[in-house]
Amino acid sequence: MTSRLDGHIAIITGAGQGIGEATARRFADEGAAIAIAELDPVTGERVAADLRAGGHRAVAIQTDVADAASVRLMVERVVAEVGPPDILINNAGINVFDDPLELTDEAWRRCFAVDLDGVWHGCRAVLPHMLRLGRGSIVNVASVHSFQIIPHFFPYPVAKHGVIGLTRALAVEYAAEGIRVNAVCPSYIRTQISIDYFGGFPDPEAEERRVADLHPVKRLGTPEEVAAAILFLASDECSFITGESLMIDGGRSILYHDVP
Length: 260
Description:
Elements: E1 9-13, H1 18-29, E2 33-38, H2 41-53, E3 58-62, H3 68-81, E4 87-90, H4 105-115, H5 117-133, E5 136-141, H6 156-174, E6 179-186, H7 192-198, H8 204-212, H9 223-234, E7 245-248
Parallel strand pairs: 1-2, 1-4, 2-3, 4-5, 5-6, 6-7
Helix pairs in contact: 1-9, 3-5
């Protein structure tokens, strides 16, 4: 039986943990060769080694998505060691939340360097290979913050709005070349980053429950649920969808609310 990604080569940024790791594992199970582009070489190689132990093709390449040269070199290595990529998942990102007038210039630049520039660096590096192949699928991991403005989360939503604009612009630019560009927009997902965030409160369990209750489904999402949506958008099943942003938020974004 043919798997959904047989014959595909996928680059997944930030795949050493969380949503990226879940996506790498799901894609490998569906037959894709996996390139893990991860800033932390230890977590990246851990995931790649696990995949190889399971009989999958996987490499880990230390990559700083904020550095265009690092991304370009990563893609060159993928082409040389695995083959030209026809799937790119721009997942790497960081949280930067502050008061607008207290935010430092350094924090502003870091937020955009990773959360927006990092997405563009990935797209720019893989698009020439996809154009030569005559096909490709890019999925950018945006956020519910791409559409909903929540007080005290500045400037993260500004960068994530930019990811949606980039997604739509590139989708139109390359649609006729057989390349699709879409985005997923997760809400609170129970990753290590979220767990660490809750850990900053006096009662982490109570804060996690409060946040879970903000969602109509009364729970947080899982990395595997986001990975399933990314798989759909990356696969050939999604061949007539481009420039779209899929909300993965347990219904949170359709509520009328004024609390974070």
